[in-house]
């Protein structure tokens, strides 16, 4: 299994760097609009590489790696933000593919090496570090209510929250549900999340607009849509690799599903990945149609396919089919978004809500992890790191500061242990 994981990681990293070098797909949403400037000759590769490095490097170090260290599953940002840099910087597609493959393997092996290194420390804080994700499961289900509040006002947001909470507690009360000799335990947070997403989409779909065929997004950028469709085969292969990697426990697409998968809650991780995918449809579809450049994970539904699949081969097939359908239906999705501007706007509010909820959940998780490493002292250190980060102008963004503070707490506790100031 370890060999298979390394092979998939290598193929995934190599193909992602290849796609970035060719201008077919990049992971960073902010980088995607710059690719047409390069492809159409208004930006040279050096300028593209420098911009890519500026956009991606900080996120690899300050976001991808810290989250990956909270479990033995790699946050996909660690892989694909780096392959964006490798691909856009490489003068040759095969060099890019080779370096991308090497990065995929190095990251997979290196993460395990770090885990082994932690075991040699005077205070092994790795188990406590895993508690960073402990509040995520419960807190994440709140984001649809916040998205509704941001889009439609706090009253509708409060109604959404109330119905979510009611659904959650009904599930808690009726569990387990008996079917003859068999019993089923419904997931309370998952149920609340589903109810919230349904309400969010119902509210969003009520906003409609009349758009003529010639003025639609797909019509305006029809040549760029066709460019993506011409690359549907290689993009489908990329989707297969990502879904297989998720199924094999190599990667996860976001901190929520990573934390859930690390705890063994694979179905919950799949539900979280599915909800996140819905939120990313408007962003990915709109930027893809406007730029002619896709993303290596598509609309992110490939992660849900990986988590829900019983075997990595099934996951790979589903991942390929999902990306194929996404690409071939791009113009249909674009016309739908033009027809329902509320759904397009909902995507932005969903991402904002997810970020805000995660900021709070991961900050609380960082405090819990810090206290697990050193009762009392951990709270003190994490709080100090967080407020000093704010005072310094957020060199580490709020989403990553919880995990980063927990890691720094573990390092400081070990230093104090060596100095005999901690027992």
From TrEMBL:
Residue stretches spanning the membrane: 49-82, 94-115, 135-154, 232-250, 282-306, 312-337, 357-388, 400-422
Which keywords describe this protein according to UniProt? Membrane, Transmembrane, Transmembrane helix
Name-wise, this protein is: Putative transport system permease protein
Write down the Pfam families for this protein, in alphabetical order.
Answer: YhfT (PF10797)
Per the record, the domain of life is Bacteria
| Organism listed in the record | Symbiobacterium thermophilum (strain DSM 24528 / JCM 14929 / IAM 14863 / T)
Q: Where is the signal peptide?
A: none
Q: Keyword Transcription regulation: yes or no?
A: no
**Record flagged with keyword Nucleus:** no
Q: Which InterPro entries match?
A: Uncharacterised_YhfT
């Amino acid at each position: 299994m370890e060999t298979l994981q390394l092979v998939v990681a290598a193929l995934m990293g190599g193909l992602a760097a290849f796609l970035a070098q060719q201008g077919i797909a990049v992971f960073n949403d902010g980088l995607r609009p710059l690719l047409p400037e390069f492809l159409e000759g208004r930006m040279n590769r050096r300028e593209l590489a420098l911009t890519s490095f500026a956009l991606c490097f900080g996120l690899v170090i300050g976001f991808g790696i810290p989250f990956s260290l909270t479990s033995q599953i790699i946050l996909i940002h660690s892989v694909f933000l780096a392959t964006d840099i490798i691909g856009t910087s490489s003068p040759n597609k095969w060099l890019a593919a080779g370096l991308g493959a090497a990065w995929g393997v190095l990251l997979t092996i290196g993460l395990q090496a770090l885990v082994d290194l932690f075991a040699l420390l005077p205070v092994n804080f790795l188990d406590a570090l895993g508690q960073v994700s402990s509040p995520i499961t419960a807190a994440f289900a709140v984001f649809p209510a916040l998205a509704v509040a941001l889009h439609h006002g706090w009253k509708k947001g409060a109604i959404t929250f109330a119905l979510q909470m009611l659904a959650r507690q009904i599930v808690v009360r009726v569990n387990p549900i008996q079917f003859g000799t068999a019993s089923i335990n419904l997931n309370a947070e998952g149920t609340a999340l589903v109810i919230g997403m349904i309400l969010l989409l119902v509210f969003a779909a009520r906003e409609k607009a009349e758009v003529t065929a010639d003025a639609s997004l797909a019509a305006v950028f029809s040549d760029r849509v066709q460019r993506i469709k011409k690359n549907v085969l290689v993009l489908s292969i990329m989707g297969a690799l990502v879904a297989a990697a998720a199924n094999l426990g190599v990667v996860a697409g976001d901190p929520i599903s990573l934390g859930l998968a690390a705890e063994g809650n694979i179905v919950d991780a799949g539900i979280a990945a599915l909800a996140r995918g819905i939120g990313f449809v408007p962003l990915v579809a709109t930027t893809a149609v406007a730029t002619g450049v896709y993303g290596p994970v598509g609309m992110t539904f490939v992660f849900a396919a990986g988590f829900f699949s019983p075997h990595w081969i099934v996951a790979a097939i589903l991942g390929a089919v999902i990306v194929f359908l996404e690409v071939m239906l791009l113009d249909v999705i674009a016309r739908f978004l033009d027809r329902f501007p509320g759904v397009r706007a909902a995507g932005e509010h969903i991402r904002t809500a997810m970020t805000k909820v995660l900021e709070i959940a991961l900050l609380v998780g960082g405090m819990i992890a810090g206290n697990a490493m050193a009762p009392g002292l951990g709270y003190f250190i994490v709080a100090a790191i967080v407020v000093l980060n704010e005072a310094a102008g957020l060199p580490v963004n709020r989403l990553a500061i919880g995990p980063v503070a927990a890691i720094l707490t573990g390092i400081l506790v070990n230093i104090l242990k060596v100095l005999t100031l901690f027992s």
